[in-house]
Structures are given as C-alpha cells and as structure tokens.
Amino acid sequence: MSSRHPWRGFIRASDEKPTINKEILKRVWQYAKPYLGGILGSLGAILITTLLHLLNPLIMRQLVDVVLPNKDTHLLVLYAIALFVVPLLSGAFQLVERYFSARVGEGVIYDLRVALYDHFQSMPLHFFVNTPLGEMISRLNNDVVEAQNAVNRTLVSLVTNVIQVASLLVVMFTLNWQLTLLSAVIVPLFVLAAQKLGKVLRRISRQQMEVNARMNANLGETLNIGGALLVKLFGRQQDETKRFSAHAREVHDLGIRRATTARSFMVLLSVLMAIGTALVWGLGGSMVIAGTFTLGTIIAFASYLAQLYGAFQALVNAPVEFATSLVSFERVFEVLDLQPDIQDPPEPLRLGTVHGQISFEEVWFKYPEGREGLLQEVYRPNVPELVTEGLAFESGITMPLPVEEPRNQAREYALEDINLVIEPKQLVALVGPSGAGKTTLTYLMLRLYDPTRGVIRLDGHDLRSLSRADLTNAIGMVTQEPYLFHDTILANLLYAKPDATREEVERVARTANIHQFISALPDGYLTVVGERGYRMSGGEKQRLALARVLLKNPPIMVLDEATSSLDSESEALIQEAMARVFTERTSIVIAHRLSTILSADVIFVMDRGRIVERGSHAALLQLNGLYAELYETQFRKQGKMGGEKLINLLK
C-alpha cells in the first residue's frame, strides 16, 4: 500500500532552507563547550601538523636548487633524514589530533543521547501512543551521530583549513605573489559549486532520515515479540518482507543518490583544481624558462598549490557538511523543544502520611488531539485504514466507526462530569462495557493525563499541586497487560524496590500465589522471563505484576482486570491473599468477574464516560439498570459458586 494513503501517515516536515542563526549556533556550542579542552588540544595538534606540512616543499626546493646542483653530500643526508622525520612527526601529531577529536565526538554523542532519552522519559503517555518506537530510536541513533559530525568534523575541519589556507597563502606570497593571485582565480567557482550542490545534498540527507525512520518504525512493529507473533498467526511473512523491502529500497536508492551527488561535487572540484594547476604551471613554467623562477621554486609552489586547493575544497565543503548535519540537529532539537504537558509544579506540596482518599469533582476529559506536543516526522507503516475506538480517542482521529455492539461507546469526551469520592481503605470496583472509560479514569488518578476540566484530589490535595514522585509512591497499578523486561524474575520484581531483601521478595510472591511456581523453575528467581515476559502465561505474568506492586507497598492500589487470565483455582487463592491486602489500603479494581466485585464496598458502573450507577451488588441489582443487565449477560454465567466461596473466605 502506498505510503501516501490518507490514513497511513502523518505530517512530514517541509524541506525548508537551513537557518544557521545565532540561536542554533549557541545551542550547538552548548554541547561542544564541555569539551573545550579536547577541541583546543585537537586544534593545537592540527596547527603543528600544518606547519610540518609546510616544510616538505621547502626541503624539496633546496634539494633541487642547491643540494643536487652543488653535489653537497652532507646536506643531501640531512635533507633526506628530514624528509623521513617530518612525516613521522606529522603522523604522531595526527594521532594526537584524532584522539582529541574522538573524545569530543563521542562525548557529544553521549550527551545528546542521554539528553534525548531523559526527555523521552519525561514525555506524557499520549506521546508514546502516537510516536512509533522506530522513530524514537532513529532520533537517538542516526540523528545523534550525524549531529556529532557538525561538532567533531565540520567545526574542527573549518578551523583547521582556515589555518592551513592562511599559512599556505603567506608562504606562497613569499615565493611569488603573481602566481598566488593566479591560483586564487578559481576560488569563487569553488564557492558557487558548494552552494548549488549543498542544497541538493541537504535535501537528500533529509529524505534519507525520513526513510530510515520509516524503516526503523517498520522494524520496531514487526520484530518485537508481539508483532512477530501476529505476523506468524496471519501468515503475512512474505507481505511484511515486501513492505520492508520497499523501505530498504528507498534507503538503497537515496544512498546511491547521495554518494553519486557527493562524488559529482568532488569531481567538479577536481576539474577546477586541474584548471588552476594548469594555469600556474603554464605561467610558472614560462618564468622558469625565462630564468626568473627556479625549478625548485615551481616544484615547491605546485606542492603548496595542491595543499591550498585541498584546504579550499574542505572549506567550501564545510558549509555543505554543516547543512547536512544541521538537519540532524534540527531533528534532535525538535525533540528537546517538546514541552511535556504533565509537569511538576514549581513548588509542589509534600505528601506526608497518605490516607488514601480520592475524589473526582466535575471531571471531564478528552484525549489530546492534533499534532501539538508530538514529533512532526512520524510515520506508521502498519496503521490499518479503519482504527479502533480506543485508537480514535488516543490519537484524536475522527472518522465513522463500524458499530459492532449494541452499546456503542464512541464519543467526543472519554470522561464526562465524573463526581465520586473513594474513602480511605475502601475497596471500589469499576464495571461497565468495554470502552466505557474505566481505564481512562484510573489513568487520571495516576496523572498519566490531566483532566480537561475539573479537579482530582488525593487526601484533599489537587493532584496538579503534588510532585509526580510523591504520586507514584502513593499509588501502585497492575495493568491489564502486565509488562515484564527481558530479564530475570528477581530483576523484574526488584524494579519496584531495588533495595528489597530476598525475604521481602519471597513474601510478596507468596501473597500473589506465585512463589511455588517460581521455586519449581530450574533457575528459580533467576529465570529469564523472555521478551515482554512471553515465556510466562498470562496468569503467571499477572501474578508477577501483582507481586511487583505489592513489593512497592503503596497505600493506594489500582488493579486493571488483574485476575482476568487466571483459572478459578488460582483466582480463588489470590483473592484469599488479596482480601488481607485490601483491608490495609485504598483499592480500586476494574473487574469483569463476579468474584472480584462481590466483596467491594462500592461499585461504580460506567457507560459512555459517565458514572450511571453506584452502590453495592445487591442494591444495584434492585435498580434493574445497566449493572443488572451486565450481571445477566456477563457475570451470572460465571456461576454463583465462585462468588459464594469467595464471600465465605472473606467472612
């Protein structure tokens, strides 16, 4: 399918002309400034190398004009030794220069990557919903490396060649000012060629970054374990290979275009250099024949001329390289300039002892729309033409959606006029049709989003007046699809509390009814769970996630359908353990199982983003409303036995 399909891509940045102004240069300098010592060391080594390069032509002139005609063996030996020692010293200082420039370059890469990664970590949840993983990886890798060249290569090369041109012109003027002026005639042509081809190379460079980002996005979506499994289940391996081949072909073609264009630039410069060299040899040769110029001098002058043109070539190429690198800096700065819409207040209130009261006061919420706060060059290669309701809310896309259920949840606001109070140590159940807004409501409790209107309070404090660190410590959540790192079970559990003892870990594992399972594994707690925990079953992952949040021991716990993948026996054992846990903290449970909600102090029933009913199980059944309907269609068929068994356990 074409990448220009209206539902397959987002806005791409225009190929605007690079703006090299003081602000951009200041920002570039901020990353180079910490490595000023390395830059000065590199420039010092370059200066010494440049001066050493000036000696060889002078030595050759002396050999041709003085030593050989006079048959001076002593000077011949000295100059021969000098011809060996000078390149040796030059090579040594080139190594010194490379060492310093490498330290500067790698240091800039490190700082940029860390700054980008840290900024990504501060971005709100909707940023990650709308940004492919491959795009972020492309910014962290490809763009950072290209931006490094602007500091490590272009800046150092610019200063280096300015020094070389200045020193060469001084020496050449001392030899013959007429030939020096003649050799400079073609310099304007160098500049013109650089300006013309520089624009072309910059445009190709931007296109390369775009197609690389698309290829990385495709890789990120199809080579992670979930994507790979989906491809295999639907037998789409060949289709995905064709899709990747198309992206790789774009990269291939642009790589050839860039290489060919760059080589064309080099060939053009070589032709211009040949013209200048021919003019100098023509005039200089006639002067030698006329006896006004020595043979050694014209040989030395020709050698200096080659160095001068090489330095000029590098000078006129520096703007081309910087313009190319500027694209990467623009893409890096685009990320760093994004302002997270969820931030700590300047002087956050400090939470003391958390009692666990949560209140929603006239809360309305609509998922962010448009591209504000997002990257401008994001492309999703696998977004289907018809999106789900959940994606429509998350991304802000509005389009006709197929009605597959009698109770359609499509709407403008995800939450509408929510008013509720959850008291300390109360067990609250949230029920309702899929898409009613239950998970969204819990996301607002954790301040993954801020309400569009209204206030959410914790122990009477507006969540926006608290630090996110305090809020994270106060609330723990087990999501519907728990995420596990590709690491050991122990490492995944310790993510909640890195300094926890082995006894604490085993205690929470027993509470979550997962300790016996872990102990039976060959490597026990050191068993690697696999990518995204795919070596574990759904129920095992959920119990591990429950143990992890219990290790954190928050005063408020949110469970998003945390027992949906458990069999009846495992669920009963977990419910027995959790009954003690719930009595010690405020608990909010999103539940689709009767056994999960029967013990709740209060049940909030949601529909189309609103709380339509609230009360106990018995009271809600008497209302004969939505809850009674859900009970008849979803809960009743689970059987009364499990619920009665649970009630007996809780007595």
What report would you give on this structure?
The chain is α/β, with parallel strands linked by helices and 651 residues long. It has 2 domains: 316 residues, Up-down Bundle (ABC transporter transmembrane region fold); 186 residues, Rossmann fold (3-Layer(aba) Sandwich). The strands form 2 sheets. Strands 6-7-8-3-9-10 form a 6-stranded mixed sheet, with helices on both faces. The protein has a 4-stranded antiparallel sheet with strand order 2-1-4-5, with helices on one face. The longest helix has 54 residues. The relative contact order is 0.09.
Estimate nothing, just give the exact number of structural domains.
2
User: Distance N terminus to C terminus?
Assistant: 60 Å
Quick one: how many beta strands?
10
The percent range for strand residues is: 5-15%
CATH superfamily of the largest domain: ABC transporter type 1, transmembrane domain
Order of strands in the sheet with most strands: 6-7-8-3-9-10
For the record, the CATH class of the largest domain is Mainly Alpha
- Biggest beta sheet summary: 6 strands, mixed
Mean pLDDT rating: 78
